[in-house]
Amino acid sequence: MKRILLKLSGEALAGPKKTGFDEATVMEVAKQVKVLVEEGIQVGIVIGGGNFWRGRTSENMDRTKADQIGMLATVMNCIYVSEIFRAAGMKTSVLTPFECGSFTKLFSKDRANKYFERGMVVFMAGGTGHPYFSTDTATVLRAIEIEAETIFLAKAVDGVYDSDPKTNPDAKKYDEVSIQEVIDKKLAVVDMTASILCMENKMPMLVFGLNEENSIVNTAHGKFTGTKVLV
Questions:
Q1: 15 annotated among ligand-binding-site residues
Q2: In which pathway does it act (predicted)?
Q3: Cα–Cα distance between 192 and 221 in angstroms, integer?
Q4: Which end of the chain is more exposed for a tag (fewer CB within 10 A), N or C?
Q5: What is the pLDDT of residues 56-77, one digit of tens each?
Q6: Are 71 and 47 in contact, with CB atoms under 8 Å apart?
Q7: 157 near 209, Cβ under 8 Å?
Q8: 221 is annotated as contributing to ligand binding
Q9: For residues 95 and 44, what is the distance between their CA atoms, to the nearest angstrom?
């Protein structure tokens, strides 16, 4: 693989604490991504904001404002994880679809490509920059824009199941599933908008558990135990 888009779940980055950051978890991610960068793989990263904010659970404010708070949560996550990556010896940049002063630079495909060519890990924060779109949709959109070969979907769950494994102990895991089946059965890999974007633009996904040992490197090396979402 030449270029991948890695989506990290905010909840997974929180580790056992369930909120905020678990530095040991983030450092483990950094060590794995460094292996890929040293092998010449270009890595773009989108991070969810669920370790700080889940706007759709709040009924006491306007949806647009709640989503804006969520966008800022993803910016905080990307700045934090970017700094841990730097401490691990990588070069990074954080791009957003809106101005954040000197904290970040504005996203464009040309700018992302320039940073990839310099061997940098490119963090794409702030979602799409618009309310009513999730970080799932931002992940697929950015993957398509930067022409990633596939999306690495690193979640708190280790793959795609036919029902929620947290509530159904008999839930069955898929080794492979088509994006059409994901849409038809509403399997909630990513939200519906993101699923349709994947289908229309033929963007495959590899879904796996972030907290499994060496899961990012194993996925890149073909030692994969999660679910392939085929297009």
A1: no
A2: Pyrimidine metabolism; CTP biosynthesis via de novo pathway; UDP from UMP (UMPK route): step 1/1
A3: 29
A4: C
A5: 666 788 889 999 999 999 999 9
A6: no
A7: yes
A8: no
A9: 10
Distance CA 54, CA 210 (A): 20
| Element holding 7 (H helix, E strand) | strand 3-8
Tell me the two tokens of residue 205. Answer: 């996904």
pLDDT tier for residue 16 given thresholds of 50, 70 and 90:
confident
- The response to whether 197 counts as a known ligand-binding position is no
pLDDT digits (tens, 9 = 90+) for 41-54: 999 999 999 899 87
CB 229 within 8 A of CB 179: yes
CA-based nearest residue to 138, from 198, 188, 83:
198
DSSP track, 27-94:
HHHHHHHHHHHHTT-EEEEEE--TTT--GGG--SS-HHHHHHHHHHHHHHHHHHHHHHHHHTT--EEE
| Per-residue pLDDT, 73 | 95
8 is in an annotated binding site: yes
22 has binding-site annotation: no
Residue 56 marked in a binding site: no
Consult the annotation and say whether 20 binds a ligand.
no
Is position 133 annotated in a ligand binding site? Answer: yes
129 is annotated as contributing to ligand binding: yes
Judge whether 161 is annotated as a binding position: yes
Task: Compute the distance between CA of residue 33 and CA of residue 126 in angstroms, rounded to an integer.
Answer: 21
